Amino acid sequence: MSADHGHHKVTRIDLIRHGEPGGGDVFRGHVNPPLTELGHWQFHERLRRHASDWDNIISSPLQRCAEAADQLSEELNLPLTIADEWMEIHFGEWEGRPVKEVLAENELQVTQLWADPFAFCAPGGEAFTDFQQRLLNAWNTLLEQHAGKHILLVCHGGVIRALTQHLMSLSPEAMSRLSVPYAALLRFKVDQLEYNEEYAPWVTLEMMDGSVLDRGKLHSPSDIANYTERQQPAHEQQERQLQEQQEQQQQ
Asked: Which domain holds residue 203?
């Protein structure tokens, strides 16, 4: 069957990981810290580079995704859907604990997350296979509800890895090596090809930008300060400017 056989609808889905969250190097599944200032900047800087005519925004309900998604929705006047199905994997008893601490106590289990992810399940947590099936169900629902649209999906590193593994038929080892830094963005094109009166998805990874946005000039103090200033309400900016003028007059 050729890729252009029959009628088809093209759906594009941009998956973006949230920016840097607070809380340090911990198992961050369902724990819910907000983004840092750098994290907000990373998110908006990535989307500035890859701005598109999205039709809808869909987001995980966790604060590190939903807060930035809500702000973007208002800025672009786009509808926003918050969906629990796009949450990160639940790490059970490891939730919120430092990675080094858990690794020291459970080295074999932690290394299994990378060595054999399909057999992984943190104590009291969500099995990877259940996690991936949850995502695939949500993915299929998204394609049904938004066929022919361009969707921005704000989600998590584990979500992106698990989806990409399935869509690109990656080996477990390749999935574990897939680098998804903060604010990484992947664009999938899904052609719903009609063949014998049925539709079959033809998936293409059109673009991936996984460049790290937290080194060198990309996160100089002035860059972050300028971004933070742009997010302040106008009256707060005016008050700050007035205060600076008064301080200069007193010097």
From this structure: 8-217
